[in-house]
Amino acid sequence: MTDSTVFPDGFLWGGATAANQVEGAYDQGGKGLSVQDVMPQGIVGPRTAVPTPDNLKHEAIDFYHRYAEDIALFAEMGFSVYRFSIAWSRIFPKGDETEPNEEGLAFYDRVLDELEKHGIEPLVTISHYETPLHLAETYDGWVSRELIGFYERYARTLFERYGSRVKYWLTFNEINSLPHAPFMSGGINTPKEQLTDQQLFQAMHHELVASALATKVAREVAPQAQIGCMVLAMPTYPLTPDPADMLAVMDADHGNFVFGDVHTRGEYPGYFLRTLRERGIDLDITDEDRELLTNTVDFVSFSYYMSIAETADPAKRVAGEGNIMGGVPNPTLEVSEWGWAIDPVGLRIVLNQFWDRWQKPLFIVENGLGAKDQLVEVDGRKTVIDDYRIAYLNDHLVQVGEALSDGVDVLGYTSWGCIDIVSASTAQLSKRYGFVYVDRNDDGSGTLERFRKKSFDWYGDVIRSNGATLSR
User: Fold this and answer.
1) Rounded to the nearest 5°, which phi and psi values hold at 293?
2) What is the CATH number of domain 12-464?
3) Less Cβ crowding at N or C end of the chain, within 10 Å?
4) Which residues of the chain have pLDDT under 50?
């Protein structure tokens, strides 16, 4: 390991959130319902027929009304970039309208105003796990080809409205999560256990075409924009040196890589075509689709929380708690309170892996530790002594520095849940990621007051020093 890590000038430091996890105001400002509004327990629980009072995301942390206060806190830490998502159903309440909701558009104008006031670069996710509920219930989400047109209208509206103000865009959040969470990721209303491979892979194709189409539109409407895809990174290790385990790793990697391969290369790879043949899947792919897919991205962004292990031995396939992407537990790694393997070196591995494979600039847009924080009083100030979070983030950022020394082109780093948010996986507020503590609890109680954690000052020092204060 090098003695010091040199982050390049212009490296973008900041944080990331998603609209459905921070905004609240789920029925205000002309907003329609999204799939999140009927997921009161997050991905771990069933959907409900209608919104229920126990859904913490309905108020979340009230960013809708407190965005100026929160952005000021981000500026105090020194953020140069803030990743946030636009709620599709705030712009097109049902998703299939021909005209957008002006009140929704105006809200994000105000958010951008605040970011510009503080000199913070916006990084906007167009679709982050919040497909309008109407599109799920009427069209079965991305199973329907019609969603390509609805998404194009939505994306074009954003590019026309904000294209001169936003440089960095992401088309879909964690697009490779679709096979694992079809309702949350793709608005697919058919229950997962009833979904056929044909439907699932067709939905995947529709999303990839829509992403490429949005990239094409952006280059026409906002030519200065940089368009990226976003995948969930999951480095996978063989449980043993058995070649069969290495083949299991290759198969798992292919299931994740295909999304990035199409985004960066503009066509389906041979291993994926083999999968289609062997499963008897005949995708509806038009000549226009093939042409659209050649609109490849400018950069690849990803989330990184954990690594997994794989094995071909069914007797050893004990599912790892919290590993929603499958795999088996790695006996060499410690885990978080939610069972996610803690593997800082895996971040260096995946950065090198993606760079070697795609040769596109990379952007780490999610990374963080979900933990149960305890609010305490120190010198008359309420705070959280979250040394565990500092250690986690420090160790991961050191590995980013190692990847930079390896020659990997990394644009920036946005820590996930830079302010406490409602968890996507469990819909809890007790699973906290932020540098800022929000006084709200799993039962909905609390004042929503904001408090700076110990990690708040630590991250500010890291940003101001451009990584020089990291402990190695």
Assistant:
1) -60, -15
2) 3.20.20.80
3) N
4) 1-3, 321-322
310 is catalytic: no
CA atoms within 13 A on the CB side of 284: 9
Residue 412's beta-bridge partner residues?
12, 363
| pLDDT of res. 2 | 44
Is 357 exposed, middle or buried, given 0-12, 13-18 or 19+ CB atoms closer than 10 A?
middle
Residue 34 near residue 89, CB atoms below 8 Å: yes
Q: What is the pTM of this model?
A: 0.96
What pLDDT sits at residue 359?
A: 98
Domain ranges of the chain: 12-464
